[in-house]
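Exercise 3.2. Students should predict the tertiary structure of the chain below and write it as structure tokens, then compare their answer with the key that follows.

Predict this chain's 3D structure.
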Amino acid sequence: MTYDAGAVERRRILSRTRSVTIVGASNNPARPSYFVATYLLSSSKYEVNFVNPRLDELLGRPVYPSLADVPGETDLVSVFRKHDDLPGVAEEVVEAGARTLWLQLGLWHEPVADLAKEAGLDVVMNRCVKIEHARFAGGLHLAGFNTGVISSRRQSAP
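Answer key:
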């Protein structure tokens, strides 16, 4: 079984996504989850929700204690938790009926990926949802990064 979602697959996932729920959202501006949250709120069309049992509000939005408390449909779940927490988080993601489990940079857990794939979810590991969105929306081109996307046209946002 392959665990690495290629660029075409990641773009397909981001294009169909309507909402992103950040599990492990932090109110510390030095944390990656905070930066990703500010980017998604300012530069994407996604409905963004936050999960952290220790926060009530983040960036003017409510923070929910668990995935089960997030209102509406759960689509893509971006996880910023430590490796040992991933099996429990994956079970919550499956129970919430999400379509995609997205493990952020540095997170790779094959048993968790197997669990999610068996439940019918798409799985992306060791990738940043902010970086991938910017790659396909053309934002990284402007900064001079090689995005692997060759085109003379500016990409529309996924």
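Discussion points: Residues 32-43 form the longest helix (12 residues). The CA atoms of residues 135 and 147 lie 6 Å apart.
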